[in-house]
Amino acid sequence: MKRIMIFAPHPDDDILGCGGSIAKHTGRGNEVITVFMTSGESGSLSCPCDELMAIRENEARQASSCLNVKETIFLRNPDGYLEFSRDNLERIVSLIRSHKPDTVYIPHNLDANDDHRVTCKLVLDACRRAAGPWFRECGKNTHEVRTILAYEVWTPLQQVSFVEEITSCMEQKLEALRMHASQIKYIRYDEAVMGLNRYRGIMSGKGDYCECFQLLKTGQDLL
Predict the structure, then answer these.
(1) CA 55, CA 181: separation in Å to the nearest integer?
(2) Which of 7, 41, 125, 176 can pair with 63 through a Cys bridge, CB separation 3.0 to 4.6 Å?
(3) CATH architecture type of domain 3-217
């Protein structure tokens, strides 16, 4: 069994970027934990932030359950104002040292959304720190993440170094994504990602539907 940790800037980014890969991981008996940097409470003009936070966290739990994710963690940073800060770094280093993931998934560093880019920078730095003999306050047992993959959400990757064929899991991915009903009703993310994954499948020649990644670090078989 491998341990996988997904870092998502907002609820639904995990499904959009790597939902098919998550389903493949859990289907093979790997343990998946998803960490949500924010709770997406700014994603509506009609719903108060505190109410939307509760709604979106519940949607994230349901979607994660659909993919058989073991645990969801909500760090509850302010949506739209995620900061590269000492507090966030310490929290992520502590999570990595305590959960000891083999593989980490993050958004890529050129995504159009600020929270996505900050998540990438935070987690990459936290992975480096978690492996070193420093930062006692984050736990005494160091841990090196062997594989780091960057996924695409708002901005498609310009350079792809790893392709995961997800045809058998595409319906499960869409089912999980549609549980984010508060967001789907405004923007048809399900149709968008189905088109992207179909395009990736055709253009890569790997299958009907694929997810694409930047392989930032590798030290093991990926799935």
Answers:
(1) 9
(2) 176
(3) 3-Layer(aba) Sandwich (3.40)
> Residue ranges of the domains in the chain?
3-217
How far, CA to CA in Å, does 129 sit from each of 13, 15, 105? 25, 27, 17
Q: Please return the burial class of 146, using the count of CB atoms within 10 Å of its CB with bins 0-12, 13-18 and 19+.
A: middle
- Which DSSP string do the residues of 63-123 spell out, in sequence order? HHHHTT-SEEEEEEEPTT-----HHHHHHHHHHHHHH--SEEEEE-TT-SSHHHHHHHHHH
pTM for this prediction: 0.95
Per-residue model confidence (pLDDT) at position 221? 59
C-alpha span between 117 and 49 (Å, rounded):
23
| DSSP-assigned beta bridge partners for residue 31 | 3
